[in-house]
Amino acid sequence: MTLTITGLRVAIRDTQILSGIELALHKGQVHGLAGESGSGKTMTGFAVLGLLPHGARASGRIELAGRDLLGLPDKELNRVRGNDIAMVFQDPSTSLHPMLTVGRQLTEHMRPHLGLGKAEARERALELLTKVRIPNPAEAYRRYPHQFSGGMRQRIAVAVALACDPQVLIADEPTTALDVTVQAGILRLLRGLCDELGLAVLLITHDLGVMSAIADEVSVLRDGLVVESGARKSVLRTPTHPYTRSLLEDLP
Amino acid sequence: MTSTQNRVRRRNGPLPTFHVRGPILGFLARRPLLRFLARRILVAILLAWGITLVTFVLTNLVPGDPVAANLGQRAVGDPVAVAQWRAEHGLDKSLPQQYLLFLEGLLHGDLGTSQQSHRPVSEDLAEFVPATLELAGAAILVSLVLGVAFGLIAALRRDRLADHVLRMLSLIGVSVPTFWLALLAFYVFFYRLQLTPGSGRVDPAIGAPPPVTGLHTVDAALAGRWDIFTSALGHLIVPALVLSLYTIGLLTRFTRSAVLEVLGQDYVRAGRAKGLSGRVILFRYVLRSALVPIITVAGLAFGSLLSGTVLVEAIFAWQGVGQYAYKSATALDLPAIMGVGLVVSGVYLAINLLVDVLYGVIDPRVRLR
């Protein structure tokens, strides 16, 4: 078991956002987190990395390799972020810094996390760009995000997330902002990386179609609580909870 | 372009790109930043030419007869003398010809003779412009450093005590009239506390440093005369602070909102998700993006700062362009007014060029497509 979330509760001021999430991610498996907007999917992802908005209070336990991430001081949490747990965001046109080169964004966290020199970091960055199938990596390394298409940008964002060999990858709606035609490519890439590198992937999405394509396990979230969890087939084919059923019925 | 050509083009798609380039264009095509700079400078040169045209036309539109202003009572009554004077000053020629003569003089640095000082306007300006540049430059420097720092602090300590205090201060800064503040500062620091020297740019007993740049502080430092430097700096501090208070307030507010906006951006959260240190996030991720709106405001603020110099110079007896402009305007000294107009618009042009270039340096989306 790579990452376990138990009894995670998050409140912002007087509003309860998450009221006791239970989740377990496993090495080499994609765990889909489904639910409507406002159900707390994204907040769950943020809570894992300590990225909750200002004024949010979290309790419960988020355990990675025997350590509780919630109790970690900022400095140690920074060593986990990007290093053990990485994140891919929804819209690559806003999640990559528009004024920094692709190379810089790929290597800037390698150097503190992995202790690599400039040349080694560049070498590794070019490998990563090849791995996520960016054509002409040396050229791409010097370029800026706005010079790539949306699908390419998301591939770059995936490469950035993988830069320090994380054990856990949190992908927050990684295909929602993309054209339908490139969505499948990104999903295939994530699935492939998960199998190849033995990543534990938390795939956050409202799209059950995406879910059924690549998830091994599925959890359904509603109002800050996991209402159903299990293997993809059982959850999507024979849902037990009425909410899961209504979600499935809404599928086109 | 005829409509037939248009139709053909639409059918055949866009025109092929032009591949035959000269050595210069080829060189620039491989260097986007240089190409961007070259384009901006070209535009600036065109604008400078436009400024000469506007200045010339406006000055000639002024209802006032240079003959009456320059010749004595009796000479004005004498048609021969008037004609001779007009010929001497090229006023018998047509306006376009006069404009060309004016341009020619301008290229040689000749701006005509001031009717007030009876000296070439260029000499007057060479004396007064550096004084104003020193004052305004010090003020903009102070406002940039303090304004950005205050704005950053206010944004990072949002809704806490520091934010509230800074909000009050910036409100005061933008609402207090400069002339009143100048008088108050003069009264408090010089008259009451006797902390700072009074008016002027340097203690007359010490004297001005050997002129190199015309900026007393810089010249004194270059000459190694630290006694002059201290005196010049002492004279500079209060007027520069008075002049900068408005821009400090303005920049504090804009920096605060710019930083808050960037802090909410996805890429800042992504940077934190990568485990970057707070310092890297703040300077590489946040401040760099926030700089774009900040330099826009700073460029505009420089304009209001320049107009503020007129009042501040008058109160602190600072011998600068502001005072010179005021005297020339009240005496209808046309060559001097034109000279001041050219210099001031030249400064605006330079600031705008600088802001444009900085956009390109900071934001690759501006220089690369």
UniProtKB/TrEMBL annotation, chain A:
It holds the Pfam family ABC_tran. It is a peripheral membrane protein. Keywords: ATP-binding, Cell membrane, Membrane, Nucleotide-binding, Transport. Residues 3-248 form the ABC transporter domain. The keyword Nucleotide-binding applies. CDD domains: ABC_NikE_OppD_transporters. It is found in: Cell membrane. InterPro entries: AAA+_ATPase (IPR003593), ABC_Ni/Peptide_Import (IPR050388), ABC_transporter-like_ATP-bd (IPR003439), ABC_transporter-like_CS (IPR017871), P-loop_NTPase (IPR027417). Its main location: membrane. GO terms for cellular component: plasma membrane. SMART domains: AAA. GO terms for molecular function: ATP binding; ATP hydrolysis activity. Belongs to the ABC transporter superfamily. This is ABC transporter ATP-binding protein. The lineage of its organism: Bacteria, Bacillati, Actinomycetota, Actinomycetes, Kitasatosporales.
UniProtKB/TrEMBL annotation, chain B:
Its main location: membrane. The keyword Transmembrane helix applies. GO terms for cellular component: plasma membrane. Gene3D superfamilies: MetI-like. It is found in: Cell membrane. It is a multi-pass membrane protein. The chain crosses the membrane at residues 41-62, 135-156, 168-190, 232-251, 291-316, 336-362. PANTHER family: DIPEPTIDE TRANSPORT SYSTEM PERMEASE PROTEIN DPPB-RELATED. This is ABC transporter permease.
